[in-house]
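Predict the 3D structure for this chain.
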Amino acid sequence: MGRKWNNIKEKKAAKDKNTSRIYAKFGREIYVAAKGEPDPEINVALKMVLERAKTYNVPKSIIDRAIEKAKGGSDENYDEHRYEGFGPNGSMVIVDALTNNVNRTASEVRAAFGKNGGNMGVNGSVAYMFDRTAVFGIEGKNEEEVLELLMEADIDVRDIMSEDDIVIVYAEPDQFHTVQEAFKNAGITEFTVAELTMLPQNEVKLDGEAQEQFEKMIDVLEDLEDVQQVYHNVDLD
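Done. Predicted structure below.
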């Protein structure tokens, strides 16, 4: 499972180049999660979004503004939509969006695929090849220490590995808060990544023009205002 960490690192690195876009997307996601219940201690979905926002260093002002907007009863409504498609040489892509105009978003996503060597598929055409997974990245610990503290908390996770001085923990999606609490009880409160993601069961390599075309397609998709997350099965190392 180790190679899959590369896709997460890509997103972490991208934030340094696209902070304003990342912050805007988190603002929307926090607003949607906070509607109805703005207290993260009660609202599990909001708490999870805020934990992710912390790993991306989203400013408190943006978080507070989004929550206050939700408290104010704004009539802005967004729907969650997932799009699935294929890139060059059979590569697979999942796109998650929050949109207030489904027709616009679907058209933009379809165009991003079609103009960059890909095509949008039907629901379910790609997602079955990915596993929804809770992922945590921890610095300052080794694999043995992390495994020991999880065992002490009676938690059995999918996998633990090390890469670039970071211990990566892969867990079942419904274990997210259980694993997080175990870390916090052990004094670990800072994570390089703490999120639910879609990890490919198998990765593919692209070469030359195909990889360039694929990377352009991913860039276009991620730049779309309504797109929150893009997952794929290409090893871009």
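Strands lie at 79-86, 92-99, 119-120, 130-139, 159-163, 166-171, 193-200, 227-232.
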